Amino acid sequence: MKKLIFAALLLVGSTRHSVGNYCVNDQVLTAFPQANQSNLVLFRAANSITVSQNFIIPANVHVVFDAPTVIINPQFICPVGASFEIRNEGCEL
Protein backbone atom coordinates (compact mmCIF):
# COMPACT_ATOMS: atom_id res chain seq x y z
CA MET A 1 0.00 0.00 0.00
CA LYS A 2 2.84 2.43 0.77
CA LYS A 3 4.27 1.94 -2.72
CA LEU A 4 0.93 2.76 -4.31
CA ILE A 5 0.55 5.91 -2.22
CA PHE A 6 4.06 7.06 -3.15
CA ALA A 7 3.34 6.57 -6.86
CA ALA A 8 0.10 8.53 -6.57
CA LEU A 9 1.86 11.39 -4.80
CA LEU A 10 4.59 11.42 -7.40
CA LEU A 11 2.06 11.78 -10.20
CA VAL A 12 -0.24 14.24 -8.49
CA GLY A 13 2.51 16.44 -7.07
CA SER A 14 4.36 16.88 -10.35
CA THR A 15 3.63 18.98 -13.35
CA ARG A 16 5.51 16.96 -15.93
CA HIS A 17 5.13 13.24 -16.37
CA SER A 18 4.60 10.84 -19.20
CA VAL A 19 4.77 7.10 -19.46
CA GLY A 20 5.30 5.42 -22.79
CA ASN A 21 3.28 2.30 -23.35
CA TYR A 22 5.40 0.49 -25.90
CA CYS A 23 7.12 -2.87 -25.68
CA VAL A 24 10.30 -4.25 -27.24
CA ASN A 25 12.00 -7.65 -26.90
CA ASP A 26 15.22 -6.33 -25.34
CA GLN A 27 16.51 -2.88 -24.42
CA VAL A 28 20.10 -1.79 -23.91
CA LEU A 29 20.17 1.60 -22.24
CA THR A 30 23.44 3.45 -22.75
CA ALA A 31 22.38 6.94 -21.62
CA PHE A 32 19.32 8.58 -20.15
CA PRO A 33 17.28 10.16 -22.96
CA GLN A 34 17.98 13.85 -22.33
CA ALA A 35 15.12 14.91 -24.60
CA ASN A 36 12.72 13.30 -22.12
CA GLN A 37 11.63 16.06 -19.74
CA SER A 38 9.36 13.77 -17.73
CA ASN A 39 9.92 13.09 -14.06
CA LEU A 40 8.48 9.58 -14.42
CA VAL A 41 10.12 7.36 -17.04
CA LEU A 42 9.17 3.76 -17.84
CA PHE A 43 11.40 1.34 -19.74
CA ARG A 44 9.63 -1.92 -20.66
CA ALA A 45 10.77 -5.08 -22.39
CA ALA A 46 9.38 -8.54 -23.01
CA ASN A 47 12.73 -10.25 -22.25
CA SER A 48 15.42 -8.04 -20.75
CA ILE A 49 16.71 -4.58 -20.00
CA THR A 50 20.44 -3.96 -19.72
CA VAL A 51 21.56 -0.71 -18.12
CA SER A 52 25.04 0.12 -19.44
CA GLN A 53 27.88 1.77 -17.59
CA ASN A 54 27.57 5.45 -16.75
CA PHE A 55 23.78 5.51 -17.05
CA ILE A 56 22.80 8.48 -14.86
CA ILE A 57 19.25 9.18 -13.74
CA PRO A 58 18.73 12.95 -13.48
CA ALA A 59 17.76 14.48 -10.14
CA ASN A 60 14.02 14.55 -9.41
CA VAL A 61 13.29 11.73 -11.88
CA HIS A 62 11.79 8.34 -11.02
CA VAL A 63 12.67 5.51 -13.42
CA VAL A 64 10.92 2.15 -13.68
CA PHE A 65 12.74 -0.76 -15.34
CA ASP A 66 10.11 -3.40 -16.16
CA ALA A 67 11.30 -6.70 -17.67
CA PRO A 68 11.68 -10.32 -16.53
CA THR A 69 15.47 -9.77 -16.48
CA VAL A 70 17.09 -6.45 -15.55
CA ILE A 71 20.88 -6.18 -15.58
CA ILE A 72 22.48 -3.10 -14.04
CA ASN A 73 26.16 -2.70 -14.86
CA PRO A 74 28.79 -0.98 -12.68
CA GLN A 75 28.87 2.80 -12.50
CA PHE A 76 25.08 3.12 -12.77
CA ILE A 77 24.26 6.34 -10.90
CA CYS A 78 21.06 7.25 -9.08
CA PRO A 79 21.87 10.53 -7.29
CA VAL A 80 20.13 11.99 -4.27
CA GLY A 81 16.71 13.22 -5.36
CA ALA A 82 16.35 10.59 -8.09
CA SER A 83 14.86 7.13 -7.64
CA PHE A 84 14.31 3.90 -9.51
CA GLU A 85 12.48 0.62 -9.17
CA ILE A 86 12.73 -2.72 -10.88
CA ARG A 87 9.62 -4.70 -11.80
CA ASN A 88 9.82 -8.17 -13.25
CA GLU A 89 6.48 -8.25 -15.05
CA GLY A 90 7.66 -7.14 -18.48
CA CYS A 91 5.25 -6.78 -21.38
CA GLU A 92 3.88 -8.75 -24.31
CA LEU A 93 4.59 -7.96 -27.93
Task: Set out the fold topology.
Blueprint: H1 2-12, E1 24-29, E2 40-51, E3 62-66, E4 69-72, E5 83-87
Parallel strand pairs: 1-2, 2-3, 2-4, 3-5
Number of strands: 5
Question: By helix and strand content, what is the structural category?
Answer: mainly beta
Describe the biggest sheet?
A: 5 strands, parallel
Helix content range of the residues, please?
10-25%
| Percentage of residues in DSSP E strands | 25-35%
Distance between the first and last residues' Cα: 29 Å
Shape type: globular
**N to C succession of SSEs:** HEEEEE
Structural summary, described in words:
The protein contains one helix and five strands, in the order H-E-E-E-E-E. The protein has 93 residues and is mainly beta. The N terminus is likely disordered.
